[in-house]
């Protein structure tokens, strides 16, 4: 299959074309604002898109906040949803690029194709390679993201003739958790005198700080994506910080002539409350000592099931809280049995005992465990958080939201009068990497075909604490 790469359009004009020179320039711009220490990870950045010599410092104030939160630093950000206004080609709606990657002098950034598919049913989203071909409002941000995040997937969206409410709808669909960063690209006023620009931009920034989604395109070329973001930010209760404001009279030709027609720039960071990042309800975490005891309880139950009690049962006085667990038995690394509960309906200690015995004797995929083989089996106990329903618009949107290695998934569907249900623990991602592959096997486990999909599908996600001998 041919890979479609959108080549750089502004290398040598808006940015340095030499990779080493560009990297040095970007690193020099990555200086945090004095009042904006990166304690929490921003959910949204608003940053300018002029040539780097003009707006790079202001953009760098925003991107410097991301340094602790990218993949390169072990942080959560893996996806960037980047919106900027159309300058070159008119487009009705919001345009996807129809490309597999975006190239810059620093290398290529893969496009989040699953995210693009998640927007497929929105009537105002179109695919227009011509809109992206020469557009600078997205491209100038990529070297900053490459330097601070390391590896990430990009969903590049050029915003044209569309209502801010539609932009808000799109952003809400792609909001995700801490793994998703939203970047809105905009400059401020254009071609006023230095003092006039400062007055106009000061008022515009005050509107942004008030989450007032009524900017005009005379105030900001990216008014539409900014207004859409501000509508959603107000609904979600985001906090906002202004990082820097200046104009090209400060950073470009700082002469009387150069201050006659300037362009304004500003950068902002918006933050969610911590509890907005929680995708599923939290259960009280077990201590290491409690985890060791649930494994001992499972081991004792395994032996009791196949040949009568031979191992002393661990004390479970502090394991009487309701809990849901899965007990997994392995033989030389291969699955030998796995049974569990998806919902807490009895004391955790009792749930572990019952599931250990069922894994040994009642897993329909395997013959019952014999007394001879029981001592050689590995025992693993997964204690589940309460599951939370996943809200999605289509299958791609559902897959886009799943977090490999983190989320356990429950699949449910009533189809042609029959109920289908299955689950995979988060550990299964190790054997079935990739969300498409994972979901295909989950459907097969439920008794359906790998490519089955229906509006009746319901998905829930949960996480686990895993304990083993």
Main beta-sheet annotation: 9 strands, mixed
Q: How many DSSP E strands?
A: 20
Beta-strand content bin:
15-25%
The CATH fourth-level homologous superfamily of the largest domain: LigB-like
Which structural category fits the helices and strands? alpha+beta
Count up the domains: 3
Q: Please tally the helical runs, counting DSSP H or I stretches of 4 or more residues.
A: 14
Ends apart, CA distance between termini: 45 Å
The CATH class designation of the largest domain is Alpha Beta
User: Mean pLDDT, rounded to whole units?
Assistant: 93
Q: How does CATH name the architecture of the largest domain?
A: 3-Layer(aba) Sandwich
Short structural description:
This protein has 469 residues and is an alpha+beta fold.
Q: Any overview of this molecule?
A:
The protein has 469 residues and is α+β, with helices and mostly antiparallel strands. The protein folds into 3 domains: 5-277, 3-Layer(aba) Sandwich (Protocatechuate 4,5-dioxygenase, Chain B), CATH 3.40.830; 288-383, Hypothetical protein ph0010, domain 1 (Glycoprotein, Type 4 Pilin, 2-Layer Sandwich); 388-468, Dna Ligase, domain 1 (2-Layer Sandwich), CATH 3.30.1490.150. Helices cover 30% and strands 23% of the residues. It contains 14 helices and 20 strands. Strands 2, 3, 4, 7, 8, 9, 10, 11 and 12 form a 9-stranded mixed β-sheet that branches. The protein has a 4-stranded antiparallel β-sheet with strand order 14-13-15-20. Helix 1 crosses helix 2 (52-63), helix 7 (164-173) packs across helix 9 and helix 11 crosses helix 12. It is elongated, with a radius of gyration of 27 Å. The two termini are 45 Å apart.
